[in-house]
Amino acid sequence: MKGVVVSLLSILQTAFELGLIGSLTVLALFLSYTMLGVCDLSTDGCFTLGAAVGAVVAISGHPWLSLPAAMCAGVLSGFVTALLQTKLGIDSLLAGIIVNTGLYSINIAVMGGASLLNMNKTETVFTMLKKLLADTAVSNLYKLLVGLIAVALVIWFLSVFLRTRLGLAIHATGDNPDMVRSSSINPAFTTIVGLCISGSLTALSGCLLAQSQKSVNIDIGSGMVTIALASLLIGRAFAPKGSIPLKAVGAVIGAVVFRLVYAVALRLNMPAFMLKLVSSVIVIIAIAGPYLKARYPELHRRLTHARQKGGAGHA
């Protein structure tokens, strides 16, 4: 019994660690998709870019510098994506696909032509905190603490930034770009700023995940946009209305819940290749659920009417 409890706690801890790190990508999507109204499909490539840049900088002996380096790389990714949309007239979905495709080659180049980087002997922000917490009661929670600190700082930043004039303009651009344009605010500028910040958060998430698992694979970001979207939609169930901080916390909860679902699926011996299908099903349920719920009264009336008509016909 004790072994089962220990195993369960270990699974929960891992789910929370991965959920917190992944929630940074969810918060990036919260900014770009919810606030700005742009579904950035370059997320997968940007996530890998952050992981690759962070790993290379950490391997060179600068673990703390790896975080801002990864975020700067994410800013560049977001800038290019926004530039394609705002200055070259390319559809936002197509722009994301183009950047995501191009980033595959760039990520390989950043990793020195390799598809895998090993960081087993590399000092990271996680190993540094682990040494700092050695011989303390929370020595085994160093990954969780890093995730909590990062998430808390990002939520604080978004809460403050989105209340500024520029932040409000970004939100307004997502709601009504024509109104923003008539208010002498350049929607192209707000889109660029929003996607640059979103890209930096996505890259930071990739950097932390790479340092957490001590390796970078070229496919580390595969499916991240689906996972982040699913987590964001799940988070709306916990905070459908309210302030920006409350909605951001809801997005984080959604990321953790999603990882718990993953953990349950793995616990049930589901093959790893089926997890992408699980992600897709969760997204479908999260998107279609509110729609079907809104349509339920009408469907119920139609079914009742059909039964009554059928009963009258038999009579």
Order of helices and strands: HHHHEHHHHHEHHH
Q: What is the CA-based Rg, rounded?
A: 22 Å
**Uncertain segments:** none
Name the structural class: mainly alpha
**What topology, given as strand order, has the largest sheet?**
1-2
Average pLDDT taken over every residue: 87
What kind of sheet is the major sheet? 2 strands, antiparallel
Distance between the termini: 62 Å
Q: What is the quaternary state of this protein? A: single chain
Strand percent estimate: under 5%
Number of strands: 2
Number of helices: 12
Shape: globular
Question: Roughly how much helix do the residues carry, as a percent range?
Answer: over 70%
Keywords:
single chain; 315 residues; 2% strand
Task: Provide a descriptive summary of the structure in words.
The protein has 315 residues and is mostly helical. The protein has a domain at 17-221. 78% of the residues lie in helices and 2% in strands. The protein is built from 12 helices and 2 strands. It has helices at 2-35, 43-59, 63-86, 92-110, 125-132, 142-161, 165-175, 177-182, 187-213, 224-238, 244-267, 275-314, and strands spanning 116-118, 215-217. The chain has a two-stranded antiparallel sheet with strand order 1-2. Helix 1 (2-35) crosses helix 10 (224-238), helix 2 crosses helix 9 and helix 3 (63-86) runs antiparallel to helix 4. It starts with a helix and ends with a helix. The mean pLDDT is 87.
